[in-house]
Amino acid sequence: AAARRWLNERKVLVVLGVMKGGTSALRMHLRATAWEDNLSLPWEEVHFFDEEEEFSKGPAHYADLFRWGDDWPPPIVLGDVTPSYLYMPKVAARLRNLLPNARLVVMLRNPVDRALSHHNHDLAKGREVGRLRDRCEEELVSSPPESRWDLFHRGLYAAQLERLLRFFPREQLLVVASERYRRQPRPWLRRIRAFAGLSDRAGWDDEKLPEDHVRGGYAEALSIEDRGRLRELYAADVARLRHLLGDALHEWAGDFPLESKLAPALQDITGRGR
What we know:
- This protein has helices spanning 2-8, 23-31, 34-37, 52-55, 58-64, 91-98, 111-124, 132-141, 157-165, 178-183, 185-196, 224-245, and strands at residues 11-17, 39-40, 77-81, 103-108, 173-177.
- By secondary structure, it is an alpha/beta fold.
- It has a five-stranded parallel beta sheet with strand order 2-3-1-4-5.
- The longest helix is centred in the C-terminal third of the chain and has 22 residues, at 224-245.
- The two termini are 33 Å apart.
């Protein structure tokens, strides 16, 4: 009870996703002024809500991840950046139960680009995962429980957001297109900070905010044929996502053209405070 009370006396920002969507850069940008903001934000992914062993340790363990010790005043704001949270089914209910007032941020990247980046991340780690297209096709025909090792299904964003919104009101959720954040990080960082209840400071004096976890070359590129296949597999979900968000997601139009009859009904959320 004491740990729950301690957690809920504080502002809480949870960045739930997605993997390879720019969450590492966002964490770094938020941590740049963590001391000034009285923000406790671990360097690493916490995985409290999606790993059974961690979750079984209870609220006191989670609260301890953010405490600074008796020699320092307690933080005012808590931050948890764990991009697998959006994908794992049990997380939304667990989050709602422990942190009902949390502010939630989700960064979404073109699912084809995200899948390619995820796959090459695994290859760079030395994991034997085969070819990307084969990996996706195999995942499509199998039906095990969701796993942090999944690749293709992580890019089906609409269903994941719909599940989250069954537990949290829309006003507690901010969805950011990763391409927009990467192109204009400073205004989007300000928007995320305001959403989280932080003051209006960008955190870096340089004109360009640094990026994190950006790899050079890929070990495997996508052929035109394989990219086309991934477009086909993700197209229906992207259409559903556009309607859910009321956002045309113009940055993804190269892979997912917007149907002309739908365009007037969809507005780009760039510049809006949602």
